[in-house]
Predict the 3D structure of the following.
Amino acid sequence: MKRVIAAAALTIAGLAAVLGFKTREAPPTASGNTTSTTAPPTTTTRGTSSTTTQGTSTTPAVAQVEGPTIQTRYGPVQVAAVVSGGELVEVIARQLPGGDRNSEAISAFAEPRLREMALAAQSAHIDVVSGATFTSLAYAESLQAALDAAGI
Amino acid sequence: MGTVVTVAVPEGCAPALLDQVFAWFHWVDRTFSVHRPDSQVSLAGAGHLAPGDAHPLVEEVLDRCAGLFAETDGWFDAWPHGPGQGVDPSGYVKGWSVDVAAGLLQGGGLADYCISAGGDLRAAGRAPEGRPWRIGVQHPLERQAVAAVLESSDLAVATSGAYQRGAHIWGRAGGDLLSATVAGPRLGTADALATALFAADGKAGGWFHRFPGYHYLTIGTDRRVRWTPGLGRYLVPPDPCVGDLAS
């Protein structure tokens, strides 16, 4: 069964952009219904800010805005927002817990059982994910501050 | 609400039906957003909207939020700053709006669909491969991973967690939980219960039993995954062989 995917980014510019990033960061095991980047060619995308989910913006005047460093119990978190044409097009993790931007470093904080569950789940075919993809509240805080600084 | 709504439907679904669904979500955003100073909810929270002047659906939502406050022993609180200090029904509205959208799709004759609003979702019928929907529960520490997988052909699933954005969760600092996931028949209720359960740090107490048909799974700062027996039957594999069983 082929599918039509329709996505609407609701209209709070900053937060819609944050969640647009979120859909781009969907687990690779997710199928097309969570992100247009893995959708079949029949996909149609709708919505006021949906370009933020596409990663294909070619609008000039790209700016990179650094977010503040937020301390968490796992370590410092800092992100940078790449803004183009008033929209968030990319998020760069400057610091994540463990001092490494690789998510593997974050997994070091997970007890083996949770780690094993994650690995087991990755092998299953997932259609959709419940939850958010931010590693921490601090991640969102740093990003939001960067977006505020960028005026979006 | 400031979130992304994704609707998955079989190819051939009438475009007018999807237009109707997205028009609904945009109306909900205009009406209920706490980020828009001119929304009905913002006006009501600021005391600038007299009772009776609000849209009937706004009244309905605020009434339900008041009910959920009582039924969760205060753990779901749309008035986090006290009476007269603004109202934030977001923890219910997002899921409720998805329930209404699901009704629109069903009314249009669709049996197979999945609607996800910022990580809270409702799945019905069959996924593209012809089997029930498989729903991952976000791993709170690894953003590319899921911590559990649920399978169902009719389920609403909502997750609240410390890894989520901004001021989504009120009144809690530290605690024993990384995330709380609630599954059940309606997403509005599941959304509110996940918010309440996380706010209560996973201590559901007696109030959760006031919601028959709803089950939960929590992920603790001790890195353990716990779930209620009712939730276990949705797990893939459907055997509580990993994690701790919540009593």
Summary: Chain A has a mean pLDDT of 47.
